[in-house]
Design goal:
Strand content: under 5%
Mean pLDDT: 88
Number of strands: 0
Structural class: mainly alpha
Number of domains: 2
Oligomer: single chain
Low-confidence stretches: none
Largest sheet: none
Shape: elongated
Distance between the termini: 27 Å
Order of helices and strands: HHHHHHHHHH
Length: 225
């Protein structure tokens, strides 16, 4: 379904301004061409189906759809960072996405400073490194659902109808993916300003906080190890 969701997302008008947020940095003309190609793939996928969950979900069909998407991006963007970004979306482990959601929450706590007595103590220098490395962004991924529902595009309304059973599916996966990408970038900046020992201590802090809160998922994605 990852391939289908990426195609559906890139076909929309509401997400058009945010392609760079998932690593697809292209000029508008190239983006429009890929968008049109994604719409053609969507129409082929749907055939006579009224809703997305009525289509063929066989492995053979998924492989064919993946090939069409890669060929489409290669045709307009070549072997570029945009193709790499698309493949990261398509091949990233699900566990990393779940861990990143927990990591985001705990990083927010770290920046605010958790005053509860039972909290594990964090290294002040590590906390400062996280604060310095944190960036502000114009786009708020948490607003993707609102942005998508406010779209007046006829195509976007069509996509919403296709996903009537899970109306927030695209905005949710887009939000999670953008947040994960930003966390990866943040972690890279943090690692540049800390020693290996401090990095390991910070990872231990995340895990200790997760354990104290009863979070069953390791909040440390693979890219942090």
């Amino acid at each position: 379904m990852k391939t289908d969701y990426l195609i559906l997302l890139l076909s929309t008008d509401w997400f058009f301004p945010f392609w760079s947020e998932i690593g697809m940095v292209l000029n508008d003309a190239t983006k429009r061409s890929i968008q049109a190609g994604c719409r053609a793939i969507v129409q082929k996928l749907m055939a006579n189906a009224k809703e997305y969950y009525q289509i063929d979900f066989s492995e053979k069909r998924h492989h064919e759809t993946y090939s069409m998407l890669v060929e489409l991006i290669e045709g307009y963007a070549g072997q570029s960072d945009s193709l790499i970004a698309a493949n990261v979306w398509l091949t990233g482990p699900e566990d990393d996405l779940k861990s990143s959601i927990m990591l985001r929450m705990l990083t927010h706590d770290l920046l605010l400073g958790d005053s509860e007595a039972a909290s594990p103590a964090s290294d002040p220098s590590a906390r400062m490194a996280v604060m310095v490395a944190t960036k502000t962004y114009d786009a708020d991924p948490d607003q993707f659902w609102i942005i998508s529902t406010q779209s007046q595009s006829a195509w976007d309304h069509y996509i919403q109808d296709l996903l009537a059973e899970t109306p927030s599916a695209l905005s949710d996966i887009a939000s999670f993916t953008v947040q994960e990408r930003r966390l990866k970038e943040l972690w890279n900046r943090i690692c540049q300003s800390l020693t290996q020992s401090q990095v390991e201590d910070l990872i231990s802090w995340y895990r200790a906080m997760a354990k104290r809160r009863g979070i069953p998922i390791d909040p440390v994605p693979r890219y942090m190890l």
